[in-house]
Structures are given as structure tokens and as C-alpha cells.
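To whoever picks this up:

The nightly regression suite flagged Helix-turn-helix domain-containing protein as changed. Nothing in the input moved, so I suspect the structure step. Input below, exactly as stored in the fixture:
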Amino acid sequence: MSAKVEENVVVDSRVHQRIGQLIRALMEDERIGSSRELGRLTGIAFNTLANWCEGKADPRLQKLMQFAYAIGWSLTELMQYAEGDEDPYEAIARKKKAQQQKYRKAS
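Regenerated output under the current build:
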């Protein structure tokens, strides 16, 4: 049996809500600015991102990893955010600040 099995992440409604908040906040971010641009950046169709926001679809693990890495987060960071209570705008700002500090140290 060599059928390819794609794992969907079982996501409760709170995690769906948190990921949706993050996606909406990213679309408002000055680097991104729209659902289409976020889709282009992540390589995930903006319809798929909208379905995640609305809880209409569970993300496949591969797509969730792709999303996390495209926005500069690890999957662990994304799931910690999703299970926590940090404001999505604060989470984005915190991550940007950490990336800027890492870049400055490397320069």
C-alpha cells in the first residue's frame, strides 16, 4: 500500500480563531497589505487562507509548516502563539524585533 497520506492538523475552534487573527493581522502589516500578497508570500492560495480564518478547513500539516516558515516563524512558534493569548499584532511586532536584532548581530 503506497498511497500518499496527507495529514490534516486537528485544530480546535480556538486555534482556528487564533490563526485567523494572525492571518488578518499579517494582511494589515505594511510588508504585506493584502490577502493576495500574503498568499503570494506563503505560496498558499488566498482562498485557503480565508477558509482557515473562517474555520471552514483544517490546514494540512505541510501547508501549516509552509505558512509558518514563509512568515519567518517556526511551526513551534506558530503553535505556541495559537495556543496562547498574545495579541496577534504584538506577536508580529515581537517577531520582527527579534529578526531585526538577529540581523544586526550578524552584520
